[in-house]
Every structure is written in structure tokens, then in C-alpha cells.
């Protein structure tokens, strides 16, 4: 299966309007939509919960760990721990 990436909008009738035409032969396609949460309001009119956007930092009873966690940089939303673990193993064992 070949993948194409483009942008578009959904109109009020629910139709997908692509920003640019795709030069692909006619036929059946599978579509995966990724919607930006911050750019578009929720369909039911409610705003997303703040806890959904920024995960709560873990708390610790130990002062040294609490200070470390408070000063740690935030984790990016697209962070994949399995991928980071695999990259560290490849580097460690020269894979």
C-alpha cells in the first residue's frame, strides 16, 4: 500500500475538501484522518479538559526526587518510550 500526505478541511455537510488534487489513479482508497485538537473546537461545543493537554507530573515523597521531577523538562506529546528504549539499546550494543 502506498501512502500520500495532504491537508484538507471538513465542510459543514461533512465532506472532505483536499487542499490540492492528488495525482493517483481512480480506485478504492483507505483514509486516515488526523485532527488537530487545538486548532478546531470540539463538535459538542465543550473545551477539552486541561489535564488532557498536559499530563500531571508524578509526585514523590522524597524531597530530592520531588525537586528533580519539578525541574525536569516536559515530555513531548509524540514521545514513544518503546522507540526511545530501542534507540538506547541499539546505541549500547552497536546494533
Give an overview in words.
The chain has about 100 residues and is mostly helical. The chain has a domain at about 1-40. The protein has helices spanning about 50-55, 65-70, 80-95; strands at about 10, 15-20. The protein has a two-stranded antiparallel sheet with strand order 1-2. A hairpin with a 5-residue loop joins strand 1 (about 10) and strand 2 (about 15-20). The longest helix is centred in the last third of the chain and has 13 residues, at about 80-95.
Give the SSE map.
Elements: E1 8-10, E2 16-18, H1 50-53, H2 63-71, H3 81-93
Antiparallel strand pairs: 1-2
Q: Helicity range of the residues? A: 25-40%
Number of strands: 2
Return the string of H and E elements.
EEHHH
What's the gyration radius in Å?
Answer: 21 Å
> What's the main sheet like?
2 strands, antiparallel
What structural class do the secondary elements suggest?
mainly alpha
Short description:
The chain has 95 residues and is mostly helical. It has helices spanning 50-53, 63-71, 81-93; strands at residues 8-10, 16-18.
Primary descriptors:
mainly alpha; two-stranded antiparallel ribbon; 95 residues; 27% helix; 6% strand; elongated
